[in-house]
Write a structure and sequence with these properties.
This protein has 351 residues and is an alpha/beta fold. The protein has helices spanning 37-51, 70-73, 86-96, 108-114, 116-125, 170-176, 190-202, 224-227, 229-235, 288-294, 316-331, 336-340; strands spanning 58-62, 77-80, 101-107, 130-135, 181-186, 207-212, 236-239, 246-247, 253-258, 261-266, 303-310. The longest helix has 16 residues, at 316-331.
Length: 351
């Protein structure tokens, strides 16, 4: 499915013959019945065999939250970290062994609240790893408090009169942090979700995928205004590289620029044709249009789904290893004992 020719970290040269069943662990999946996490787990387990990576070369890392149980359910290596710190753990794993395929699973609370600082720096460094951010706009594990992505005015247990905070936009944050692959999908659109996860896996560099995920216990229907089948085609803008931005049941709506501002137009009205529409370019090095798409206000505009941006930049771990190799070539291999006994030393005498 990938449009990237780059070989994935850890991929075997010969077919391994793995199936989804090989990636199902012996742990009982313990999410609430009907939770969107089940769909995401199923699609990840479905994509893994396609990558042809041995299970011992795959690591799933998580922090704290409902989504953070993910490593238990994948029959690969895994690390269940502490709240918000999964990006630092995942970064260390990738730098120590660049051949591993590293996946960071987090939620809107874990990743964008206490972990906001860590996730920003992981993205700007452009390590070759994948971030799956489950966004349900609520704190589910702690029973329904508002999260960094909860909409303005949201009434919850921790905001009984409605939150007065404006929500973080995860896609805008990822663009500003300069992740090199940025995408959005939906838990119930399984075909799209699977394809998006696979494309993220093939990208060489930091992949960030926001997944709209329904918490049917504490925030049921958070995205139904644009994800329900009856309205989806009119309220979702599918982003396809090299194609004009068209949406709607009749495929007769589109997005064009009026000066510097985007607007919704109807094809055929006032002589408007597909040639007047914006053409999506996920490879544009200038992030301006990608950021504009991330900021389109709903319901005045449809919600963009797909790959916002896919560009190439040097990966952090490659640069680190290159620097280490250069230092070794220049100065020779280090001697830890010699280092510990160099410089100013002293002896504590016994009285």
């Amino acid at each position: 499915m990938s449009t990237n020719p780059t070989k994935i970290s850890g991929a075997a040269d010969m077919p391994l013959g793995l199936t989804r069943m090989n990636f199902i662990s012996d742990q009982e999946v313990r999410w609430c019945p009907g939770c969107g996490d089940y769909s995401i787990l199923f699609q990840v387990q479905t994509v893994m065999p396609k990558l042809n990576i041995p299970r011992e070369k795959i690591v799933f890392v998580s922090g704290i939250g409902c989504s953070s149980r993910f490593p238990y359910y994948m029959n690969t290596y895994g690390f269940h970290g502490i709240h918000g710190r999964a990006p630092t753990i995942a970064s260390g794993i990738k730098i120590a062994n660049p051949e591993l395929s590293v996946w960071l699973v987090t939620g809107d609370g874990d990743g964008l609240s206490i972990g906001g600082n860590h996730i920003v720096h992981a993205m700007r460094r452009n390590l070759d790893m994948n971030i799956l951010l489950f966004n349900n706009r609520i704190y589910g594990l702690t029973k329904g408090q508002y999260s960094p992505t909860s909409e303005y005015g949201k009434k919850t247990k921790s905001s009984p009169y409605g939150t007065v905070e404006h929500p973080i936009n995860p896609i805008s944050l990822a663009i500003a942090s300069e992740a090199t692959f940025i995408a959005r999908s939906v838990d119930i659109d399984t075909k799209h979700l699977s394809a998006t996860i696979e494309r993220a896996a093939y990208h060489k560099g930091m992949s960030f995928v926001e997944i709209f995920q329904n918490c049917n216990i504490f925030n049921d229907g958070a995205f139904k205004e644009f994800t329900e089948k009856e309205v989806r085609s009119d309220r979702i803008l599918p982003l396809e590289h090299g194609k004009p931005m068209i949406f709607g049941k009749e495929k007769n709506k589109g997005i064009r620029l009026n000066g510097l501002k985007p607007e919704v137009v109807t094809l055929g009205e006032n002589g408007i044709s597909t040639s007047d529409l914006l053409v999506h370019n996920e490879e544009d090095l200038d992030p301006t249009l990608a950021y504009m798409l991330s900021q389109l206000p709903f319901p005045e505009f449809p919600v963009p789904i797909g790959v916002f941006r896919r560009v190439t930049k040097p990966c952090y771990e490659d640069s680190v290893l290159e620097q280490i190799d250069g230092a070794v070539a220049k100065k020779g291999r280090g001697d830890l004992e010699k280092l510990m006994n160099s410089g100013d030393t002293w002896v504590v005498e016994e009285f």
